[in-house]
Task: structure prediction
Amino acid sequence: MADPVARLLPWSSPDGKPCFLVSDGAGYVSRVADAVEEEQLASAVDLIDEARCVLAVRGWTSGELQLLTVELTEALVEVHRVAESRGMRLLFHACRDDQSSQREASPAT
Result:
């Protein structure tokens, strides 16, 4: 079993606070979080394609640009949260691996 690590979840509490899960990453909530993150990333890719199409036409209205800006901002917030969550977990594992390597390299006393 892997060591538990705090994971920033891809959703917030009802009052807007970040939600964290401390687990080994193999449980039900971890799998739900993985699925939500994958959907958020896929939606961001779709939105990028849509934005490129809208901007290429150059016949957009200010309302279309405003809607696109709102949607791109929401997607960027979600993608940033995914990156932050994954970065925190990578840092935890890197620190743990470094500590493990240092223990193995230390001479026995």
About this structure: Residues 62-105 form the longest helix (44 residues). The first strand starts at residue 5 and ends at 12. Residues 8 and 20 are 5 Å apart (CA to CA).
